[in-house]
Amino acid sequence: MMDMSKKKEKINVLFVCTGNSCRSQIAQGWARHLKGNVIEAYSAGTMPGVVSSRATEAMAEAGVDISGHTSKHIDDLAGIEFDYIITLCDSAKHSCPAFPALVKVIHHSFFDPTSLIGTPEQVKSAFRQTRDKIKQFIETLPETLGAEDNE
């Protein structure tokens, strides 16, 4: 018989950006890769597009495969009870729908490398920089979320 008084093993975290094509996909990939034992990671967008091939390439360079990820609208995940929702861009912060009071919404903005116009090497460098900054942020989780109570 299962002990129902036991706290759940993982916290549900939703990473949100506008297109669900780059930053939120990278965050989901890092969270699953680095923190999969404590975080169940999801990603979605307020106006989803397609997953950026450059984001997929930047993550592959770091040894994380997000090639199977697809862009989703935040409404597609409506049946999941999230502990934390982390918006990764100002647009998503302002257009993110309301969630139940029990869900903690956190904003941590990252540069959108898909917006950069430059040489192929400049663009690739921007994706790498965003990837690395998101990795540094993910490495601090869940402690910086106050989620240590869920362990």
3D structure, described in words:
- With 151 residues, the protein is an alpha/beta fold.
- It has a single domain, classed as Response regulator (Rossmann fold, 3-Layer(aba) Sandwich).
- Helix content is 32%, strand content 15%.
- The protein has four helices and four strands.
- The protein has a four-stranded parallel β-sheet with strand order 2-1-3-4.
- β3, α3 and β4 form a beta-alpha-beta unit.
- α1 packs across α4.
- The longest helix has 20 residues.
- The radius of gyration is 15 Å and the shape is globular.
What does the secondary structure layout of this molecule look like, with pairings?
Layout: E1 11-17, H1 23-35, E2 39-45, H2 53-61, E3 84-87, H3 90-95, E4 104-107, H4 120-139
Parallel strand pairs: 1-2, 1-3, 3-4
Helix pairs in contact: 1-4, 2-4
Distance between the termini: 22 Å
Number of strands: 4
Report the CATH superfamily: Response regulator
> How large, in whole angstroms, is the Cα Rg?
15 Å
Query: Helix content range of the residues, please?
Result: 25-40%
Shape: globular
Strand content bin: 5-15%
What is the typical, i.e. mean, pLDDT? 86
Low-confidence stretches: 1-6, 147-151
The topology string of helices and strands comes to EHEHEHEH
How would you characterize the largest beta sheet? 4 strands, parallel
Domains, number:
1
Major sheet strand order: 2-1-3-4
Name of the top-level CATH class: Alpha Beta
Task: Briefly note the structural class of the backbone.
Answer: alpha/beta
For the record, the CATH architecture stands as 3-Layer(aba) Sandwich
Number of helices: 4
CATH topology name: Rossmann fold
